[in-house]
Amino acid sequence: MTCPTRRLDNVCEIIMGQAPRGESYNTESEGWPLIAGASDFGPARPAPKKFTREASRISRPGDVILAIRASIGPKVLADGAYCLGRGVAALRPLPGLHPRFLWHWLGQSSAALAGKGRGATFKQVNRDDLGELEIPLPPVEEQARLAGILDQGDTLMTRRREALTLVDDLARSIFVDMFGDPASNSRQWRSATVERVAEQVTDGEHRTPRRQAEGIKLLSARNVRDGCIDFENVDHIGPEEHGRISRRCDPRRGDVLISCSGTIGRVAPVETDEPFSLVRSVALVRPRTSVVTTDYLASYLRTPALRAHMLREARSSSQANLFQGPIRNLPVLCPPLDLQVAYGLRLRSLARLQAVHVTHLAELEALFASLRHRAFRGEL
Prior knowledge:
The protein is an alpha+beta fold. The longest helix is centred in the middle third of the chain and has 40 residues, at 140-179. Helix 4 runs antiparallel to helix 10 (337-375). The protein starts with a strand and ends in a 5-residue tail after the last helix. It has ten helices and 20 strands. The mean pLDDT is 94.
């Protein structure tokens, strides 16, 4: 079944954001919360970091706030009045357009919208780019029916993501239950430093590596996630370049990686035997396994107390980087080794549970994408 389409600006009021004067910004909750761009979006509602005493473009509850600059396409539902900065626009459905139908259609159209982005430094779209988008417009009752089906899919994915979050929370709870809070060392464990509990502390290549289209993976700080390594968005180098770099820094299974620039203090264990190289923005710690296990050290360095310690050290540097010296001097509490091993076994059980949730989430996302595609082709 096909249905007529309408231009978005014929069925929706488009309110383009405008940046307030800089001197009006504050963090004391004075005035309106400011939505400057996608970085001020939370999982379910806006999560602004600043306020402004001056606002010329303000959202209403129920508006869809759409990111239109730098990151184009993410969206969030307004639950109140927010100042709309230059990186966003508010979409306010007119009678005849169901709000949830608009919400799901924007998700389906995000790639097409992002493709309209222009700009040398930051890609952005304007009012005309938004307004000329064609949205299918079946009767409102049919819009509500389709939106209801897609809402159910959204709910299932949200629950699966919440389950993954609970697994992460459980891992942190197990750590504190077994070892206490590192900030207070309430269990009175022996204290050492990273240098004392490591066979090696180093970082990646300091010179610019000779990159190529394919070959051995070259990782930077962006590839170090909290608890895992992202091997997807990587550069590549040849075997000769890898051999040269590996003489100084040769990652192996069981090593612990730390991001040293950008988002500082993310920590992940190496859980692969595939060879790869690192650039300077990643530090490598090779645990002395007679003192600390990889699982324990990686989890310990991910605790809020140690993350805060690393951030303080980085801010004390003129370049806002975390260097080898401060890493070597990071404090490490050393519980009995058998307790660390027991923790690792419990962590492995959680990892298996997490893998199941990740697989199910991927299946749900694929199903949802198919449903959404069919919904806007009139096939549901």
